[in-house]
Amino acid sequence: MFKKIVKIVSIIILVLIVSLYIVFTVFTSPKSDEQVLEAYENSYVKPILTKEKFKEFTYRKIEIKKDTSLSTLVFVHGTIGSLNDFSKYLSDSLLQHKFNMIAYDRIGYNYKDENPVQESIAFEREMLLDIIKDLNKDKVVLVGYSYGGPIALSVKEKVKKIILLAPAVHSKVEPMPWMLNFYKWKLTRWLVPKVWKQASKEKLSHREDLKKFEKEWSNTPNKVVSIHGTSDWIVPYENSKLLQEQFDSNQFQLVDLEKGNHGLVWSNFDFIKEQLLKHAD
C-alpha cells in the first residue's frame, strides 16, 4: 500500500511540474500579433501594429498616434520582455489623451524570432535612435524598464526627458540568479524555454557590457528621473542610488517606491502612470 501511495504521489508531482513548466513557457513566450491586439479591444484609440526594419533585422512596433503636438512616450522593455509589457499604458485613456506612445520588441524577443539577442547596449541605442529619428526630439520621453534603462540612458541626443524604471545600470550590483545555471549547464539547457535562453545570454553578458558605459552616465545632456522599488532584489535599488551619486541634483531625480519590487511596471501601474503624466505637455 505504501509503495502505491508513493507511486501515485510521485505521478501527481510529476504532472504538476510538467503542467507548471508548460504554463510558464506559454505565459512568458512572445505573443502573436492577434494576441497583442487583444489587449486593445476596449481601447478608445486603436493602436497601429507594424513590422519595421533595422539593419538586417525585422521587429514589431506598436504605436498610439493621436496628435503630433503631443509628447511621445517611447517604452524600452527589459530582459525578458516585449512590447506587450506596456499594453496597459498604451491602452489607458488618460495617457492616450496626453501622449502619443510607442513600444517595440527588441531583437531576439519578437514573436517567433529566429535572431539572437545582440548583447550590446550600443546596438540597442542605435536601434532606439532609429525608431525616434523622425520624431520631434523636444517632445520625446524615453521610458526604459530594467535592461531598457541603460539603453535609454545611453542616448546622448537631447530629448525631453529620460525616465528609468528599476534600471540595471551598474555592474557591481548586477546579481546573477542561480537559475541561470540551467542555461549555463549543457545537461539542463534543453529545459530552458527559447525566449529565456535569449534572456539568459543577455543577462550573462550585461555586467561586462555595463562597464563600457557606467562611468559616463552623467554625460547625457538630458534630465533623468529614476523610479525604483526599495525592495527590488532582481535589479537592486542600489542601482539608482549609485546613479544619483553621478548626477547633479538639478539633472537627476530619484523617486523611491517604498517596498516596491521589480514588477513595478505592472504592480504599481497607477503610481507609474501618475509619474508619467507629470511630463505631459
From TrEMBL:
The chain crosses the membrane at residues 5-27. Residues 72-198 form the AB hydrolase-1 domain. The keyword Transmembrane helix applies. It holds the Pfam family Abhydrolase_1. The keyword Transcription regulation does not apply. It comes from the Bacteria. Keywords: Membrane, Transmembrane, Transmembrane helix. PANTHER family: PUMMELIG, ISOFORM A, RE40534P-RELATED. This is Pimeloyl-ACP methyl ester carboxylesterase. It comes from Tenacibaculum skagerrakense.
